[in-house]
């Protein structure tokens, strides 16, 4: 198992946070963390699992609102430099970020990334929902 992912999972267990882990290959695994009805997936890969790519499928966008959501995503990308907001091919808003961690700090760094993401996702919800439903 990838060391950085293992350290992060041990930290999550001590904090009693629910998650699921799935090994994709011997060089990649994903840790899925539910929060407020959304699932954040953290993909660990590279040497010791040092490379982390984090994705949350945030909302599905009706076809007639796609243009409005491109504008919102652009505004959010300008405001939140550490996260990327974009529409995928299924018209879902996806929130993504990447990190390189080390075994010495992987548990704390990954948890901090997860916490900051949760705060930002709560902050941006009104803007996204307004654009979808107005």
What is the count of β-strands?
6
| Mean pLDDT figure | 96
Secondary-structure content class:
alpha+beta
Q: Termini, distance in Å?
A: 46 Å
Name the helicity range: 40-55%
CA-based shape = elongated
Order of helices and strands: HEEEEHEEH
Report low-confidence residues grouped into runs of 5 or more: none
* Main sheet record: 6 strands, antiparallel
Number of helices: 3
Rg, Å, rounded = 16 Å
Strand order of the largest sheet: 1-2-3-4-6-5
Report the sheet-strand fraction.
Answer: 25-35%
Features:
6 strands, six-stranded antiparallel beta sheet, alpha+beta, 134 residues, 3 helices
Would you give an account of this structure?
This protein has 134 residues and is α+β, with helices and mostly antiparallel strands. 40% of the residues lie in helices and 34% in strands. It contains three helices and six strands. It has helices at 3-14, 66-79, 106-133; strands at 20-25, 28-35, 38-45, 51-60, 84-87, 92-100. It has a six-stranded antiparallel β-sheet with strand order 1-2-3-4-6-5. Strand 5 and strand 6 (92-100) form a beta hairpin. The protein is elongated. The chain starts with a helix and ends with a helix. The relative contact order is 0.19. The model has no long low-confidence stretch (mean pLDDT 96).
